[in-house]
Amino acid sequence: MMNYSHPGTSQHLHFCYESSNKSCPQYIYSLAVRVPLYILFAAAILLTVFGNLLVIIAIAHFKQLHTPTNYLVLSLAIADFLLGAIIMPPNMVRSLETCWYLGNLFCKFHNSTAVTLCTASIVNLSFISIDRYYAVCQPLQYQTKITNCVAMVMVLICWSLSVLTGFGMIFLELNIWGIEDFYYENIDCVGGCTLFQSFASSFISSTISFYIPGFIMIGIYRKIFLIAKRQARSIHNSAFQNGNLERMKTYQTKMERKSTKTLAIVMGVFLSCWTPFFLCNIIDPIINYSLPPFLLDALAWVGILNSVFNPLIYAFFYSWFRKKIYSKYFSCQCNCLLFQIRITSFT
Fold first, then answer.
1. Continuous H helices in the chain
2. Average pLDDT by consecutive 10-residue portion of the chain (347 residues)?
């Protein structure tokens, strides 16, 4: 059994199941460490659930938001909402109590669902980047190429690929293919729920779940940025010919700053959250699983936190979406106030 110490835990040896001779070791965090972490994780869960739930309700409620782009945003919000609602709470308990008490079958289901939802979230982001490419770079062809039907096909591909990756890999035990003896002799224990992977499994799953969608996003957003700069220069040249140089210089600078800021936020948040985990996920089997499991667990949490930021970036970041939410909210408040005034005057 691999033995390592957790930062902030007691050094006394404990076990998840004292009566079992194959129990996993339990590392008990001190109260000063556990309480702040529970508060931090609970806050992340609430933000993930309610932020994405608001996006889901808004897109489902407003018919004006029933567009191909928003169907992709809706699919993203559903994946992130489910991550916050059904994956993050058990993850929180497992990470802080360092034991799993829900059984082996539920552990497999939990890990499969976690891989599925994380993959769906990332692949949805890549499809949104494709949608944005046509909207920005080929606006005249956008409505004919990105229809509701095309958006639904993208959503179907995304979820089918994600379910196949998550449930296929774990329930068929492809994650330990080729290292079964090592896993059952050195890693497997009662009270643990760790997604352990061979190099082939980690490489293939990481490529499908992160590297391919990530490179698609980087390539597309780079192209969008270059085209935006080219369009800004074209506007600048047109303004020079028409004598409106100063005003158009200001517009060009503003346009370039806005596009740079938007793409920097989109790619910066995504890469900052997920890159450390997927790099370590591939490196760990190469260095004979030398990375501490608590480090991989912490990096997985950082990746999952991307689901907290997604509704802010891909929904509330757009002014038309915010206006629709705010207008609906304030109209409801005004209607309620008018109703109360009428009731009061009648009585």
1. 31-61, 68-82, 88-97, 104-137, 139-145, 148-171, 180-182, 199-206, 212-242, 245-286, 293-304, 306-314, 319-346
2. 51 77 87 92 94 90 86 93 95 92 92 96 92 84 91 96 94 90 89 91 94 92 80 62 54 52 76 94 92 90 92 69 56 44 40
Structural class in CATH, domain 14-185+197-316: mainly alpha
Which residues are bridge partners to 9 per DSSP?
A: 29
Residues in a beta bridge with 29: 9
Query: What is the reported pLDDT for 280?
Result: 95
Measured between alpha carbons, how far is residue 10 from residues 5, 13, 14, 247, 318 in Å?
Answer: 9, 8, 9, 65, 48
Distances (CA, A) of 217 to 29, 163, 286: 39, 21, 27
Q: What is the pLDDT of residue 22?
A: 86
Q: Are 193 and 94 in contact (CB under 8 A)?
A: yes
Q: How far apart are CA 335 and CA 224, in angstroms?
A: 43
| pLDDT tens digits along 241-259 | 555 555 555 544 555 455 4
Look up residue 175 and give its amino acid. Answer: N
- Cα R_g (the chain), whole angstroms: 24
For the segment 168-212, what is each residue's pLDDT rounded down to a tens digit? 999 999 999 889 988 988 888 999 898 999 999 999 999 999 999
- Quick one: which of 191, 208, 188 has its CA closest to 200? 208
Residue of 145, 142, 143, 153 lying closest to 71 (CA atoms): 153
Which residue, among 143, 126, 174, 177, has the nearest Cα to 68 in the 3D structure?
143
Q: How far apart are CA 49 and CA 45, in angstroms?
A: 6
59-96 b/e with 16+ CB inside 10 Å = b? beeeeebeebbbbbbbbbbbbbbbbbeebbebbbebbb
Q: Tell me the domain boundaries of the chain.
A: 14-185+197-316, 317-347
pLDDT for residue 345 = 40
Q: Kindly provide the b/e burial profile for residues 163-190, where b requires at least 16 CB atoms within 10 angstroms of the residue's own CB.
A: bebbbebbeeebbbeebeeebeeebbbb
Which residue has 């059984």 as its token pair? Answer: 103
